[in-house]
Amino acid sequence: MITAIRGFNDILPGDSEIWRHIEESAYRIFSTYGFSEIKLPIVEKTELFLRSIGETTDIVEKEMYTFPDRHGDLLTLRPEGTASAVRAYIEHKLYTAPVTKLYYTGPMFRYERPQKGRYRQFYQIGAEVLGDDSPRADAEALEMLMRLFGRINLKGVTLQINSLGCPDCRPVYKEKLLNFLKDKTGELCENCVRRIDTNPLRALDCKSPGCIEATKNAPSIIESLCENCKTHFEKVQYYLKLSGLTPALNPRMVRGLDYYTKTTFEITAEGLGSQNTVAAGGRYDGLVSELGGPKTPCFGFAIGIERVALILKEEGIESRPLSVFISLGTEAEAKGVELVSGWREKGIRVVEEFSEGPLKNRMKRADRLGARYVIILGENELNSGVVAIKDMVAATQETLPWDKIAQRISAQ
Ligand code: HAM
């Protein structure tokens, strides 16, 4: 038997309905905030990711799927979407509009150790606001994200924020942190020691027990922010409060990508174990100019669809219940064609059970098909203009007129 590659998953029926529910809810909400979809390629020139994500990040150092094509050009399966969105923004001169709001969805690829909630091919829904330096843009994007999580009923959601400063104040903090860490190199892991001069902030994010212990009392980046970054960060918190959001401050939060400036954030949810970050992102005011475009302040985020879907599945959400229709006898069968067609017109997800035989067996088949509701039309029902409808989860049965069925099912 040939199986799928480890870390690359099939998304099967049953799960795909939950995925669609998440994606459609996101598109609907994002569009009310003025976002439009951009479809991006999944392969880009390797150089794009080296220059945007940063050469000393885990992603670039050890997680990219990079290969030469038949002409020897070095290509990479995208590990994330922001770099591509920014490349497209510059390439197609989208910056002629004062603000551009884009969202995208699709697979990303990282050579990570697979475990629950962490895969080598995983899907993100990403959103980017390009051309807005206002702290309101940060807060609004976060509000939109939290609105989505509220709408799909994601439980135990926590928002953590930090500010990583700007090219003026981050070097000052880096120096402070470096001086602090220099005395502790004996406790740090090999990786962090190697990166200490180029990227000392990584040590704050490292999961090795030695690094956690060594950085316990490290200086806080929030206390090192310049006036401009400090004011921006305070305003973001003010606007978040106006939206009814109360984030936790986490000065140790270092994102795994180097392009961030000022606000960064992570959202975690309950029920996933260690891979519990369901969405993350922040501001990246330098990336567009870094990649050759005009100076453009930006804010964005990405949601990990597998992780959100895992939680919703464990919560037992049913986004589109399946109904199975059973008709008994030739006349009911004829009326059934009309009824089923009418329900489908109204958006009811209904399949007809065609087998012959005792009702008991057909009910069993309906159950194995995954029916939430079984709708039965026999001779008596036909004569009275009703159907019997059985709720397979609640184990209840009722009789309803034909024109009330759609309403009854979609009310769930
Ligand atoms: P990221 O934090 O690398 O950010 O990924 C965002 C989300 O993708 C994570 O919070 C997680 O839910 C999901 N994710 C990441 N890696 C995996 C994996 N191996 N398996 C399953 N899910 C995963 C970015 O990618 C940035 N581009 C976000 C951004 C957009 N920043 C600004 N704009």
Textual characterization of the structure:
- The chain is an alpha+beta fold and 412 residues long.
- It has two domains: 15-169 and 225-315, 2-Layer Sandwich (BirA Bifunctional Protein, domain 2), CATH 3.30.930; 322-410, Rossmann fold, CATH 3.40.50.
- The chain is built from 16 helices and 16 strands.
- The protein has helices spanning 15-32, 46-53, 58-63, 82-91, 135-151, 170-182, 190-194, 202-205, 209-214, 227-242, 287-290, 305-315, 330-345, 359-368, 379-384, 405-410; strands at residues 36-37, 43-45, 65-68, 74-77, 100-109, 121-130, 158-163, 248-249, 261-268, 277-283, 298-304, 323-327, 350-352, 373-377, 386-391, 396-401.
- Helix 1 runs antiparallel to helix 5, helix 1 crosses helix 12 and helix 5 (135-151) runs parallel beside helix 10.
- The mean pLDDT is 95.
- The structure holds histidyl-adenosine monophosphate (HAM).
Descriptive tags:
binds histidyl-adenosine monophosphate, Rossmann fold, 21% strand, BirA Bifunctional Protein, domain 2, alpha+beta, eight-stranded mixed sheet, 412 residues, five-stranded mixed sheet
